[in-house]
Amino acid sequence: MLIDQQAGTVTVEGEDWPVVADALPRRTFAIISHPDAGKTTLTEKLLHEGGAIREAGEVFSKGNRRRARSDWMAIEQQRGISVTSSVMTFEHQGIRFNLLDTPGHEDFSEDTYRTLTAVDCAVMVIDAAKGIEAQTLKLFEVCRLRSIPIITFINKIDREGRSPFELLDEIADKLALDTAPMSWPIGMGGMFRGLYSFEEDRAWLIDKVGGALCPTIIDGAGLDDERLLAAVSSQTHDGLLEDAALAAEACPAFDRTAFLSGDMTPVYFGSALRKYGIASLLSALARHAPPPQPQPALPEPVEPDASDVAGFVFKMQANMDPNHRDRVAFMRVCSGTLKRGMKLGNSRTGKTIGLHNPIFFLARDRELTEEARPGDIVGIPNHGTLRVGDTLSERSGLAFTGLPDFAPEILRRVRLDDPMKIKQMRKALLDLAEEGIARVFRPLEGSNWVVGVVGALQLEVISTRSEAEYGLAIGFEATAYETARWIDIADEPMRKRFIASQRANLAEDGDDALVFLARNGWELERVQKEWPEVSFSAVRERI
Ligand code: G4P
Predict the structure, then answer these.
(1) N or C: more exposed end of the chain, with fewer CB within 10 A?
(2) Ligand 1: distance of its center to the CA of 135 in Å?
(3) Protein residue with its CA nearest to atom 11 in ligand 1
(4) Closest C-alpha residue for ligand 1 atom 32
(5) Is 104 labelled a binding residue?
(6) In the prediction, which pLDDT does 231 show?
(7) Protein residue whose Cα sits closest to atom 10 of ligand 1
(8) Which atom belonging to ligand 1 lies closest to the Cα atom of 272?
(9) Where is the Tr-type G domain (predicted)?
(10) Contact assessment for residue 48 and residue 59, using Cβ atoms and an 8 Å cutoff
(11) Residue 149 among known ligand-binding residues
């Protein structure tokens, strides 16, 4: 890549691209769902609607070609799941959308949780036949913890599903959220005829013309509009009128303040596969989703309109080339205007890092941005200097807070086939721990390191990558431990007594934090009762 500052161009692969300074409003969001609810399909259709891809399937087929080059990514392909997160940026209706992809598989939920710390809004996709599923609930709880507003998209209305009322009730009951239906299906499943948008006063109807389904849009239509009456059977029309009256009575009207505080969700119906209701969803994101929000930090939250640059790393991704230990750190810009070549301080190490090759995600076709603003994500290539949770800023003494580490649910001892390679193995494990792929625990007694993961698939990633990137053949053996808790003891003499008494069950993690390894829930409870002044934590914030 060649940059000509004066001409304002960047040359990529021999072609000149104009550089744009864009100060468009931002909407930074993620899609949360249970696997199979339709997140991938919806992502594609949103990108298509937003003009970022010409044909649905384009981005993902390219991604597959790129991914096929790396060995460990083969796991993704074999399992048909998405392990890594990435960022997709597009502009629509004068707004720059940053869509952060999150892995749907539950083994990688930890990565998803961290990605959610970098968004201002989430779209919750629900399968109309299945309703709220386990993973949706878990992810919703993370959003609630951070008061992230949620827009609901009830997907697959082209198939037989539950009644809209039943689905709205379930959201209200299970998530304790007020629901405000913004659109309504005109018939469902086999009887599906279209959507009525209460918000836009628009009927969107589909009709079979010469075997193909063609949409007709009736703008400014009231529910009694003659054009609507003429287009659907009287039975379907009566059903819509009845449902609309009941919905208006049973559900509160949309209240943006309640939505922004996480107490209400606007609900849109549609079908990602058939691209029904996608335009309304995108307009909803433009209209209702919040602009970049202040981010929790010490000594005080960072306001997006502050002039100095500050951001935090929420994700690391290994370089696709297994021969290099390069990594890309994904950083959310929280304030200021970040430019290529800028120098930022890392609050954890106290060192300065020059952003010589930040990856700015593509804004528009044929144009590149050379700067990133609050709400944007930049990729920072590095050789291990950055970690998940790092704060990069022009301000000294600033540290973003709230990036969670979760207690592992699977603990394994690492078996090394060639004992001469123990040093390399330790380095590999610490590197992978820094990327946030696993926890590494060094017991205070004994020399066998233990790795902890949230999902079993992470173990596969560790062994595949150890082999591909470090030439290490490793396996995993059962340990006596079932779970781990981070320990916090304010009083130093008590800390010493606790360590002396529990030494056999204690370890240090990759950041040298003290961890209690428990054989089972019963043991954990017993020790907790014995040491009431000690805090045992299942979630740790990376500061
Ligand atoms: P995920 O990322 O949330 O796991 O879901 P994904 O988009 O992969 O969708 C899961 C399955 O649901 C896919 O079918 C997809 O085609 C289907 N699907 C998504 N949206 C809709 C919809 O609006 N209506 C209907 N009827 N189906 C939908 P699949 O058979 O598993 O995969 P494929 O062979 O179709 O790709």
Answers:
(1) N
(2) 17
(3) 36
(4) 36
(5) yes
(6) 83
(7) 36
(8) 23
(9) 24-293
(10) no
(11) no
At 296, list the tokens: 């929790």
Distance CA 128, CA 368 (A): 39
Neighbours of 397 (CB within 10 A): 10
- Ligand 1 centroid–CA 45 distance in Å is 12
The reported pTM is 0.81
Rounded distance from Cα 41 to ligand 1 centre (Å): 6
Which residue, by CA, sits nearest to atom 29 of ligand 1? 36
Alpha-carbon gap, residue 92 to 264, rounded angstroms: 25
Whether the ipTM is more than 0.95: the answer is: yes
What separation in Å is there between the alpha carbon of 271 and the centre of ligand 1?
10
Q: How far is CA 309 from the centre of its chain?
A: 23
DSSP 315: E
**Distance (Å) from CA 181 to ligand 1 centroid:** 23
| Tokens (6 digits) for 535 | 């805090």
Query: Distances in Å between the alpha carbon of 367 and those of 114, 288, 362, 363, 377?
Result: 30, 27, 7, 7, 17
Q: Give the integer Cα–Cα distance in Å for 521 and 407.
A: 13
Single out the residue of 54, 43, 135, 138 nearest to residue 85, CA to CA: 43
In 3D, which of 407, 423, 384 has the Cα closest to residue 507? 407
Q: Is the dihedral of CA 49, 55, 60, 62 positive or negative?
A: negative
Rounded CA separation 407/539 (Å): 6
pLDDT of residue 379: 85
Order of strands, sheet of 474-478, starting from the edge strand that comes earlier in the sequence: 474-478, 410-416, 450-453, 439-443, 506-508, 514-518, 483-488, 535-537
Torsion 327-120-355-10 (CA) sign:
positive
Write down the pLDDT at residue 362. 60
Does 39 appear as a known binding residue? yes
What pLDDT sits at residue 68? 32
Burial bucket for residue 264 (CB in 10 Å: 0-12, 13-18, 19+): buried
Question: Do 360 and 316 form a contact (C-beta atoms < 8 A)?
Answer: no
CA atoms within 13 A on the CB side of 109: 23
* Ligand 1 first shell, C-beta below 6 A: 33, 35-41, 104, 155-156, 158-159, 271-274
The alpha carbon of 106 and the centre of ligand 1 are apart by a number of angstroms equal to 17
What pLDDT does 94 receive? 87
Q: Which of 31, 36, 45 has the most ligand 1 atoms within 8 A of CB, as the residue to mutate?
A: 36
Residue ranges of the chain whose pLDDT lies below 70? 1-22, 53-85, 103-110, 208-214, 318-326, 362-369, 541-543
Q: Could you tell me the two tokens for 122?
A: 């989430």
End-to-end CA distance of the chain: 34
* Token couple for 16: 């000149």
Pairing of strands 150-155, 264-269: parallel
Give 117's strand partners.
none
